[in-house]
Design a protein that fits this description.
This protein has 193 residues and is α/β, with parallel strands linked by helices. Helices cover 46% and strands 15% of the residues. A five-stranded parallel sheet has the order 5-4-3-6-7, with helices on both faces. Strands 1-2 form a two-stranded antiparallel sheet. Strand 1 and strand 2 form a beta hairpin.
Length: 193
Amino acid sequence: MNTTTTTGKLTNGHRLVLLPLPFQGHVSPMLQLANILHSKGFSITILHTRFNSPNPTNYPHFTFLSIPDTASEANPLISDVGMIIRFLHYINISFVDPIRGCLERLMSEDDGVACLITDAQWFGIQSVADGLKLPRIVHRTSNISSFLFFAAYSRLRDTACFGSFSDKGYTSFFFSLLIQIFFLKYIHRYLHD
């Protein structure tokens, strides 16, 4: 079934919901993917947080839906890796129910939802997709260094590279040094094998 959007573009009647992580390096690639999918005839809905939300006027061919949240601070200050990890943990716990509500609402509309495409760090959303019997595709926006790190993480963990330390300064220095050595070693091997 083909339908026509308000912009006059023919769509295939299938709505895709995309849920980017609210960081620029994640929002931009997700919007690029959305543009590609839209050019193939899909109707696109971008589900987003209030924090670092995309500008809907730049994408008039998409529908934008803000996730209602209970956060007291609309734009949290994220200045270090520890804060990013806490923020990821926070959104994966606090936003599960609001995201479920948004998806239920979208699924009850005429177009329904054909598939949910999320950023890989929305790990708390798989249970929502499973519960709604909604197919989910995970979009990873990483570079080759991140890919190599994730591929070797279990080996590093098994060799106790991520043991606990009581001194935070020592931990961050050690971790930074370890990552630099790891990437130099494995990128060199990757490029020369």
